[in-house]
Design brief:
single chain, about 270 residues, alpha/beta, 2-enoyl-CoA Hydratase, Chain A, domain 1, Lyase 2-enoyl-coa Hydratase, Chain  A, domain 2, 2 domains, six-stranded mixed beta sheet, three-stranded mixed beta sheet, globular
Length: about 270
């Protein structure tokens, strides 16, 4: 994993850093896909992890696909089109599915350009904070392809259909300020403040009872697709579990006693 993604844990917060700065952190090749999926599965399986931050090394968050590799593979793709769906299913499409499965909240700290699949990677995260130098582009049409990584599903749910259509059909870049205005990101900070701001937000999430946090994320994720009555049934079932936790009793006691809570994850 280390070659492609750096994994650093500090208490309950894990920071994942895409680690190919000289190539602007493309995510389309198998090694990077494997590393991202492995890191996400590791996070979700570790009860000590409360929240994760995803960022990029160097000046870019992620350039998305590697255009040189795309050019090299163009002839083979055109000669054997029936093999391309398998290439996507066993490749980059594993990333949005991995994000869909995990219950740990993930904050994207977008430190620079997030282009094509790089933008879609940011959209897979639960919260997005951008530096002032961040740029965003759903730029697939600019290179004559479509979003094969779930962007057409993700982007309209974040910014609405009209804005998503504008971004996807023009392929044009959007500044951090424009991303804030349309709700793609929740905050824009200076370059120097990006990771501290992401870490501070992660700390506020990590301070809450971990079972309740993970279940809250799962409800939010499932709520994008479920009917209200089905989601209420799911919420009731989850509520029966968190009501039985020691952290719930501690939270109520601490509130009534006007003292800081001490959560143990039990």
């Amino acid at each position: 994993m280390t070659e492609y993604v750096l994994y650093r844990q500090d208490g309950g917060i894990v920071t994942l850093t895409l680690n190919q700065p000289e190539r602007r952190n493309p995510i389309s090749e198998r090694g990077m896909v494997d590393a991202i999926v492995e890191a996400l599965m590791r996070i979700d399986a570790d009860a000590s992890v409360r929240v994760a931050i995803l960022t990029g090394a160097g000046s870019a968050f992620s350039s998305g696909g590697d255009l040189r590799a795309m050019q090299d593979a163009a002839a083979a793709r055109a000669a054997t089109p029936a093999e391309t769906p398998s290439y996507y299913r066993h490749g980059i499409q594993r990333i949005p599915l991995a994000f869909e499965r995990i219950n740990v909240p993930v904050i994207a700290a977008v430190n620079g350009p997030a282009i094509g699949a790089g933008l879609d990677l940011a959209c897979m995260c639960d919260i997005r904070i951008a530096s002032e130098s961040a740029q965003f582009a759903e730029s697939f049409v600019k290179v004559g392809i479509i979003a094969g990584d779930g962007g057409a599903w993700l982007l309209p749910r974040l910014v609405g259909f009209s804005k998503a259509a504008e971004l996807a059909l023009t392929g044009e870049k959007m500044t951090a300020a424009e991303a804030l205005a349309c709700g793609l990101v929740s905050r824009v900070v200076s370059n120097a403040e990006l990771l501290p701001a992401a870490e501070a937000l992660a700390g506020r999430i990590a301070a809450n009872p971990p079972h309740a946090v993970r279940m809250t994320k799962r409800l939010l994720m499932e709520g994008r697709n479920m009917r209200m009555d089905s989601l209420l049934e799911m919420a009731a079932a989850m509520q029966s579990l968190v009501h039985a936790t020691a952290d719930h009793r501690e939270a109520v006691a601490a509130f009534l006693e006007k003292r800081p809570p001490r959560f143990t994850g039990s």
